[in-house]
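Ticket #380: bound-state structure for glutamic acid.
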Amino acid sequence: MAAVSEGTRSRSAAILGAARRVVVKIGSALLVDSATGQLRVEWLEGLAADIAALRERGRDVMLVSSGSIALGRRVLSLGDGPLPLEASQAAAAVGQIRLAQAYESVLAPHGITTAQVLLTLEDSENRRRYLNSRRTFETLLELGVVPIVNENDTVATDEIRYGDNDRLAAQVAGMAGADVLVLLSDVDGLHTADPRVDPGARLLEVVEAVTPEIEAMAGGVGSALSRGGMRTKLMAAKVANRAGCAMAIVRGDASRPLTALSEGAPSTWFLAKGDPAAARKRWISGMRPRGRLIVDAGAAAALARGSSLLPAGVTEVEGKFSRGDPVDIVDAEGRVVARGLAGYDVGEARAIMGHRSDRIAELLGHPGRAALVHRDDMAI
Ligand code: GLU
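RESOLUTION: The complex was predicted; output attached.
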């Protein structure tokens, strides 16, 4: 290991120590032995021990793991060269089941329940699906589960792919309101130049903002197994930081990679301004409302105390909006008291307004969520 700087050690320890919700991205090159195509089980066991330690300290942990294609292509004897899209999708389908199984088998001995979540780009771009995924993550984490996320490579065609799990991990971190994202990689972090060609290249230990100068330092492609190079990592940093989430790049090949990071392994930290909740509120307040929910005095007071908006407190619904669209919440005097993302579309909102939440299923003919606007989706 390269020399550990005191600054890096205390920075990493402080950021990880204060984190509440951590997303760890694991690249294919760490997980799958490039010579044999086999899973590196021992390494995975070390990672599992680190995850268990975080869980014991009460942290929520989510993993975004690559490796489905790398594993599946071996099983199918598809060789080492580039694969046509259909072949990589078939490989992903075969590999993903093994990947999920591998995590399950190393985490279960620690008493950790895992869940598999496969996402496509549309799940973060379409607001309705975004909200659904977000709620599901929240519920899984509340139940103490460690979600294992990958791109749904089998159905994602080129136009709707992330294509690299660095950016997927950053989206997941934003979606789930994580405050730390760790990219376990095959490099120490971001250097001032490509260290493979420039012996004078220096590791940047901390990046306050991804400026064009910083972007110019990122080289080109990644390793033979993984898709992401430094460029996608910087894109990930921007997405994460904007969502109030700090991001680290660190070599993942230590036997306890997260312990190594917190003990000062060389790394680059990209710092966020503010926390995830503040970033989310900023994002919501900046949206253009598609409708208005008029609420009674009781509901307005409850919102001010930090509650969700229940349908019972709504007296009128105006505008044209779908689930996930921004709406203004307005009191009887016409004052905007909050802006939030609607949990129902306009027709459903009209059908349930003024009613208690336990009547939603009967009124809509299908079960629904208790809140018309959830407090996490609201800026006062
Ligand atoms: N989703 C791809 C896989 O699991 C990996 C993408 C990447 O390497 O970033 O194989």
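RESOLUTION NOTES: The chain has two domains: 6-276, 286-379.
TICKET STATUS: resolved
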